[in-house]
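Researcher: Let's continue the batch. This sequence belongs to RagB/SusD family nutrient uptake outer membrane protein, and it's 587 residues. Same format as the previous ones, please.
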Amino acid sequence: MNMKKKLIILLAMALVFSGCQDFLSPADENNRGLDDIYGDAAFAEGLLLNGYVRLPSGSYSFNDVATDDAVTNDGNNQYLSMATGQWSAMNNPMEEWSSGFAAIQYLNRILKETDKVDWATTGEYTKEMFNDRTKGEAYGLRALFMYYLLQAHGGWTSDGRLLGVPILTEPLDAKSDFNLPRNTFEECVQQIYKDLDQAEKYLPLDFEDINSTSEIPDKYAGKTNVSDYNRVFGAYNRQRLTARIVKAIRARVSILAASPAFNQGTTVKWSDAADDAAKVLDLIGGVSGMASNGGSWYAKSNSGEIDGLSAGANPAEVLWRTNVSDENTLESDNYPPSLYGEGRVNPTQNLVNAFPMANGYPITDAASGYDPNNPYANRDPRLNKYVVVNGSSEGPGGSTVYTEVGKTDDGLDAISTSTRTGYYMRKLLREDVNLDPVNTNTQKHYVARIRYTEIFLDYAEAANEAWGPDGEGTHGYSARDVIAALRERAGISQPDDYLASISTKEDMRKLIHNERRLELCFEGFRFWDLRRWKESITDPAQGVRITNGNFQFSTVEKRQYSDYMYYGPIPYNEILKANNLEQNAGW
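Model: Same format as before. Here are the structure tokens for RagB/SusD family nutrient uptake outer membrane protein:
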């Protein structure tokens, strides 16, 4: 029974144990009690799987529409409301509090009880190995949820303290004290590191089958055999948490803590963040291990790789992903009207302007060769891969999409499902999906929870801040090396004269931030990146109106954020319940 099938048992777990639905409100009692888990391994595993099912990385949020990268034509979109002045402690689409603490409650319960569970009745040392694996996954998932909580709710109080969230390492019950104060951000970060250390101690680097007893780790050598080891730690369990994924989570935590928004309240240094990212990258050979198709792992051109993935296996770009499924939801939501789509996510002119020319120079640089009368010519190839512009071809038949006013329903503001900016999103879509009602099809998709490109960009950012553009630390490659490889992979003309012209940390920082913006667009990073960098969050979303070949640029949507909104709020209802909880400044 694979993980997806095991999730069925969650239907029986919805109200099990106190505090799981809301960490401040005990849930109703179910008919099955705690004692049932000790002799029923599947029931016990439901506690752990509740952590997996609550991960927010199982789908694309497209919270990019709350930034300067995109808007949406969906008037009911929660991120649109948020970005245009309705974000509050009572209305927070970015809230992770309820789900995060519910998951942590389940994980704390399984960590407390797992030693008592009869995980296996057959096999050599299998009960003990299942117990170890459960602990490793639970510690790692608890750390990941704490990261999401810190990202969404960590912040400075009005009296100048950087706080995180309450640290919970024991399951709560009806007799527990729910009126808990927030721990400091630093204490939360250190707790995450402790949990990640524990997770690495129990988990293999990857879940892969072994072929001989010599490959059994020392911890289990002489206690089990190949068959039983593979039963617990073999390839059948791919896409569960591993030590490799744990290392990547650590890199995420460190880059967050070292960033300008938080580093005055933590002890995490940029060099720490660089080292943590490098520990992941060194496993694939550093820069030489960068996947050649890493910028378009989802695309039709890589359909053979997607369609041909063996059970649980990853392509070279992807470190952790969801299950593969046959669907066309992304295309239905984001194709333009002429392809029977809703055109929901509309890239901004801001984002389009961020793509350099093919020679690598920003369009504002005199050496770029940018022609404002022919703005899409000779651009960085990523622009055409990620954004549909006027005259682009898209869809299974390569239809031409005209965003110019007055030509088709794909034109600016033509109908309710038309673009509001003059652009449509292309990234993440498989263009062999056909939505024509006469010949509709589906194709295989998955969501990349963590890509290696993200970790490369983490390293480049941290290494530049720690050691400058060319400093290598102890890893043998620099921020410049990483950015050079990413830009060459993207199709920037070589030699990359613009990159070669950059000599200062400050200029390299601007380039790294921009490369991150391009490489990770529409994957839910921009909202958090702007805030942790303390860069402008109020730049209005711009668009283009094309009429008879003339280009007119204007503001499509203003961003109504205040300075205190670099940090999200503690939910208002939680503040009402627990007077020991302090709100972040401004909320």
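Researcher: Any comment?
Model: The two ends are 46 Å apart (CA to CA).
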